[in-house]
Amino acid sequence: MSEKTAVVTGAGSGLGRRIAGALLGAGYRVALAGRREDALRETAGSDTNALVVPADVADPASVEALFSTVRSEWGRLDLLVNNAGVSLGGTVADLSVEDWRRTVDTNLTGMFLCAQQAVRLMRDQEPQGGRIINNGSISAHAPRPASVAYTATKHAVTGLTRSISLDGRAWNVACGQIDIGNAATEMTERMAAGIPQADGRLMAEPTFDAAHVADAVLYMAGLPLDANVQFLTITATTMPFIGRG
Q1: Which residues are catalytic, by number?
Q2: What PROSITE patterns does the entry give (predicted)?
Q3: What is the pLDDT of residue 2?
Q4: What b/e string do you get for 188-199 counting C-beta neighbours within 10 Å, with b at 16 or more?
Q5: 33, 10 in Cβ contact below 8 A?
Q6: CA-CA distance, 194 to 190, in Å (whole number)?
Q7: The domain that contains 198 carries what CATH number?
Q8: From CA 214, how far away is CA 19, in angstroms rounded?
Q9: Closest to 180 measured CA to CA, from 127, 146, 220
Q10: What distance in Å separates the CA atoms of residue 240 and residue 245, rounded to the nearest whole number?
Q11: With the C-alpha atoms ordered 35, 38, 43, 46, is the resulting torsion angle positive or negative?
């Protein structure tokens, strides 16, 4: 396990920080990618297996530089956790085109760019192969009110996951998706005060310990490449997802 290498995007906060910490604790060498170098350094702490690589997943040149750094530092890549994303609220009637494009550029194009670079590295290395885990979100299944851009991109991530899974067979690259609902991070603190529901009410929603997400990613990552968790959904048990609307 000490020879395993990983890239985690969005590693400066939230679930990315939790996932990166779990991988480091399991003996991975982890490249921490994100736009804020100071936040990435907080994630890394004093762990010598953490490599801080500031990167913007929406920028093709920045993504190429990220994976070039991994190639030059470690010579191979075993795991990509495609986690970086933004959530900009807005209905189909009022969301600005700028916010739509920013969401698509980060949540969808960014995942594609990272997956493309990862697959190329995994294809060319010896031994060949590796694994990609995409963060899909509960919104890959059902929308919240006023979330048109976020929901559209997360539905698209499911198609991206399936296509990578199919194309990756030629190079022993496995790809799966984790869909997460209400993990307790800075982003979900507002749920305690109440958030809009499909019927127009405001309702507080339950959350669950984000450590369980990290454990789930470790399980997915720890499988041999001839086995794959294609889709895994983890939620707070009583969140309004089953029966939503």
Answers
A1: 150
A2: ADH_SHORT (PS00061)
A3: 52
A4: beebeeebeeee
A5: yes
A6: 7
A7: 3.40.50.720
A8: 5
A9: 220
A10: 8
A11: positive
Is 204 part of any domain?
yes
**Which residues, in sequence order, are CB contacts of 62 under 8 Å at separation 6+?**
55, 56
Question: Cα(140)–Cα(145) distance, rounded to whole angstroms?
Answer: 14
- pLDDT exceeds 90 at position 192: no
* Residue 197 in tokens: 């529901």
pLDDT-based confidence at residue 10 (cuts at 50, 70, 90): very high
3-class DSSP assignment, residue 201: coil
Residue 81 CA to residue 85 CA, distance in Å, equals 12
Residue 1 has pLDDT above 70, yes or no: no
* Domain membership flag for residue 13: yes
CB 209 within 8 A of CB 184: yes
Q: What are phi and psi of 218, to 5 degrees?
A: -60, -40
Q: What domain range is 36 assigned to?
A: 5-235
Both tokens assigned to 162: 């399936």
CB contact at 8 A, 6 and 80 = yes
